[in-house]
Design a protein that fits this description.
about 850 residues, alpha+beta, Immunoglobulin-like, zinc, hydrolase, aminopeptidase
Length: about 850
């Protein structure tokens, strides 16, 4: 498959101002007539041939200005048509079989309903079209379908007319007044019911809101609706963005490749990000729904009103929209807890990407399959990059700049460069050097040394941006670091400062310190970098107990644990050193348990150990087996040393009655954290307490937390609880997904055997992405199981990739990065991982998705 390059961008020679689509819907046969008004693009080089993308389509008829023509030919899957004049009407009819569409791109069937997914290149599986984001059209869509099978007919924009035919079919006509690229097209037809509500915008326009689901799911849509209304209000208040149609529809579907999709006026969602009640969804599921609803809604401006010129600009809408949803969630709940969670995701998913064979800048330079670039780098690092600009200019100037960006580019297909320029003009900042964050891949390493002499503290900073594929040499980047210097005696600091390191090395001096101060740096995680510093243990203990920046406090605790575990994994500690390090950590955790200035949500966050993936990431070459052993051993030691405290915490938290407020959620969070430590230190006690929590649970958070702990242990309680859970929720697909995922991500030594037998369970299918992810993604991200020294875990995932590739290549390719880590793993396992990648590479007829990921991983 060819490589597509950013530098090759050319505007499309034709404009398509209007599109009229007519669908005759059927599950196994849908006929599509597309009427395109086309005219030459004065801003592009003239070309009498219009190149229309197609994927798996055959044209039934091709008309120019209503007359049949044979001036077209196919080039691979695309249709090329010669047009004699300046403007024409092109009409093409195609026929598709949604029931055969297992890729879930284009028009497909899910549970008897029809729905679409077009981003990035799915529209070309529906009809021939210039399927690129810089061709903007207004759409009028006529849908006809069986009235019984498809009582609800939805499309983008506003419903203009509908009616019944006398043959048992009915029809609807939709019109979307806002010009949009084809990737934002959506259509849904099926037996659905709606939770209907309304929202009045800041200018007093009333918008009807619908959340469409399957009949029985209606009672679980309340949280999604509340989240939607909060998002609409927040975007008005914080970004000045008002909704622009009279109708906003959300549809939940159970077969979906990702979380959700921001189609104009008709968002399509994975059921996972819509349906929730306390019996079936955890607190973090509730948060996930709130965040994803907000994210898709926010795209209405950052993505839809201002869209992307080409797919290399993806971070323009995704990075920015992730930042917007993060800020929203920070405002809705606990700001520091949300920040810690976001950093944990960045470190767990994006840092490994940035340090491996798939590393790419947030604005990539080339791709073969764009679906492979919906990555943590484009999304999450993209958000961090925009967050840094916000940190440097402050909230007010940031808002002035986003206003300017939206005003200037409304109705356009823009570029990252357009965004940066709006930021420069609107916020009054020079981002010349900062543009490197868009072009250079790799996580910068900042080395920090603090010197003290007389009254002066001097901070020595240096940076190194590691080489990444295709980018052997890097330039220094501007790195904004928030910092504070604490007085050891008083425990206070002299005010937070922002220091920006722009050179390879620099020094910063601070006067007025008679004693060496304690340095707190990269507060709030102001820059997405790794800090390299030999921080004295007593400084980490100081910061873990006293830092007034909650993120920095979390970070100090994490550093304390990470540096200990690294030494332990290296075998560098004798028994006594091991014991004293564990005691120091136990004291720090004990202080967290005892500190009544902390709320439980934050306490719960501080108790989470650094993940095995993150630990591996801090080492040049990792031994996943050793990391797992040492981390578990430390957890067990902490569970033993703090047993009484954890039991007391669990008891106190168990007395808090169920509610969705922060206090009760915090209580649930620390309860399960306590169980995790207790189960490690004293499995019998942990098992008893988890079993009691399971049986007494009146909500999914407690039930799932307890079951998670039990699933990692052995004994009759484990089997009983798993069986009870399955029987209780059989038939609720999202909860059955949890049942698969808990077993596939468990600490149980026989995890792999469990996964192998679950693959044969009657509820398992490779056709449903949620189910595939719940079993195999959970397994692939369960280090002790995936990295089994025998290599069986690697083989299992390679088998999944090969089996899934012909069914759903997009989802199959998502498993490759785990095997792609081979260069960073100890030699024995590394060879086994590579062997599996080579086995995949040698398979005949790989999809473009999987081929690209495997070849980059080996390259
Ligand atoms: N924009 C979509 C992602 C589409 C992914 C296609 N492979 C969801 C989102 O980021 O909001
Ligand atoms: Zn998005």
């Amino acid at each position: 498959p060819p490589v597509i390059r950013r530098e090759d961008y050319k505007p499309f020679p034709w404009l398509v101002p209007q599109v009229e689509l007519s669908f005759d819907l059927g599950i196994s046969k849908t006929t599509v007539q597309a009427k395109l008004s086309v005219e030459r693009n004065p801003a592009a080089n003239a070309d009498p041939v219009i190149h229309l993308n197609g994927d798996g389509l055959q044209p039934l008829t091709v008309l120019i200005d209503g007359e049949p023509t044979d001036s077209w030919h196919m080039e691979d899957a695309d249709l090329l048509l010669s047009l004699p004049g300046e403007s024409h009407e092109v009409t093409i009819t195609t026929e598709i079989d949604p029931s055969a569409n297992t890729q879930l791109m284009g028009l497909y069937a899910s549970d008897g309903m029809l729905c679409t997914q077009c981003e990035a290149e799915g529209f070309r599986r529906i009809t021939f079209f210039p399927d690129r984001p810089d061709v903007l059209s207004t759409y009028r869509v006529h849908m006809t379908g069986d009235a019984e099978a498809f009582p609800v007919l939805l499309c983008n924009g506003n419903l203009e007319a509908s009616g019944a035919n006398d043959d048992g079919t009915h029809w609807a006509e939709w019109h979307d007044p806002w010009p949009k690229p084809s990737y934002l097209f959506a259509l849904v037809a099926g037996q659905l019911v709606a939770n209907t509500d309304s929202f009045t915008t800041m200018n007093g326009r009333k918008v009807t809101l619908n959340i469409y689901v399957r009949d029985g799911d209606l009672p679980r849509t309340g949280h999604a609706m509340e989240s939607l209304k909060k998002s609409m209000r927040w975007d008005e208040k914080v970004f000045g963005r008002e909704y622009d149609l009279d109708l906003f529809n959300i549809v939940a579907v159970s077969d979906f490749n990702m979380g959700a999709m921001e189609n104009k006026g008709l968002n399509v969602f994975n059921t996972k990000y819509v349906l929730a009640d306390e019996d079936t969804a955890t607190d973090s599921d509730f948060d996930g729904i709130e965040g994803v609803i907000a994210h898709e809604y926010f795209h209405n401006w950052s993505g839809n009103r201002v869209t992307c010129r080409d797919w290399f600009q993806l971070s323009l809408k995704e990075g920015f929209t992730v930042l917007r949803d993060q800020l929203f969630s920070q405002d809705m709940g606990s700001e520091p807890v949300k920040r810690i969670e976001d950093v944990r995701v960045l470190r767990g998913a994006q840092f490994p990407e940035d340090s491996g064979p798939l590393a790419h800048p947030i604005r990539p330079d080339s791709y073969r399959e764009i679906s492979n670039f919906y990555t943590a780098t484009v999304y999450n690092k993209g958000a961090e990059v925009i967050r840094m600009m916000r940190t440097m200019v402050g909230e007010e100037r940031f808002r002035a700049a986003t206003d300017l960006y939206f005003d200037t580019h409304d109705g356009e297909a823009a570029t990252c460069e357009d965004f940066i320029r709006a930021m420069e003009q609107g916020a009054g900042i020079d981002l010349g050097q900062f543009r490197l964050w868009y072009s250079q891949a790799g996580t910068p390493k900042v080395t920090v040394r603090l010197e003290h002499d007389g009254e002066t503290a001097t901070l020595h900073l240096s940076q190194e941006v590691p080489a990444t594929p295709g980018q052997p040499e890097k330039q220094p980047m501007p790195i904004p670091l928030k910092l504070a210097l604490f007085d050891r005696e008083t425990g206070k600091h002299h005010g937070e400062q922002l220091v920006t390191l722009t050179k390879a090395q620099d020094n910063f001096s601070f006067a007025g310190f008679a004693q060496p101060p304690v340095l707190s740096i990269n507060r709030g995680f102001s820059a997405p970098v790794t800090i390299q510093r030999d921080t004295p243990v007593e400084d980490l203990v100081f910061l873990a107990a006293k830092d007034d920046d909650p993120f920095a406090r979390y970070e100090a605790l994490q550093d304390l644990i990470v540096s200990h575990l690294k030494q332990a994994v290296d075998g560098a500690l004798d028994l006594a050193a091991m014991q004293s390090a564990r005691e120091a950590i136990a004291r720090a955790l004990g202080a967290v348990l005892a500190d009544d200035t902390l709320d439980d949500l934050m306490r719960g966050e501080l108790l989470v150990l650094p993940s095995e993936t993150y630990l591996a990431e801090t080492m040049l070459i990792a031994d996943p087996g050793r990391i797992h052993e040492e981390r578990q051993a430390m957890r067990a030691a902490l569970g033993t040393m703090l047993e009484a405290e954890f039991v007391a915490l669990h008891q106190r938290a168990s007395a808090v009655p169920f509610s969705l407020d922060a206090e009760a959620r915090g209580a649930r969070k620390v309860k399960t954290q306590a169980l995790i430590y207790l189960a490690a230190g004293n499995p019998e006690l942990g098992k008893q307490m988890a079993w009691a929590q399971y049986q007494g649970a009146d909500n999914m958070t407690d039930r799932q937390g307890a079951l998670m702990v039990l699933t990692g242990l052995t004994g009759i309680e484990r089997t009983d609880a798993l069986m009870d859970f399955y029987n209780r929720y059989q038939g609720n697909a999202l909860v059955v997904d949890k049942w698969f995922a808990l077993q596939a991500s468990s600490m149980h030594p026989a995890c792999m055997a469990h996964v192998e037998s679950l693959a044969k369970h009657p509820d398992f299918t490779l056709k449903n992405p949620n189910r595939v992810r719940s079993l195999y993604m959970a397994f692939a991200y369960n280090p002790h199981a995936f990295h089994a020294a025998s290599g069986e875990g690697y083989k299992l995932i390679a088998d999944v990739i090969l089996a899934l590739d012909p069914i759903n290549p997009q989802t199959a390719a998502r498993f490759v990065p785990q095997l792609g880590r081979w260069r960073r793993i100890e030699p024995g396992r590394s060879a086994l991982m590579k062997e599996q990648l080579e086995r995949i590479a040698s398979a005949p007829e790989l999809s473009r998705d999987t081929y690209e990921q495997v070849s980059r991983s080996l390259g």
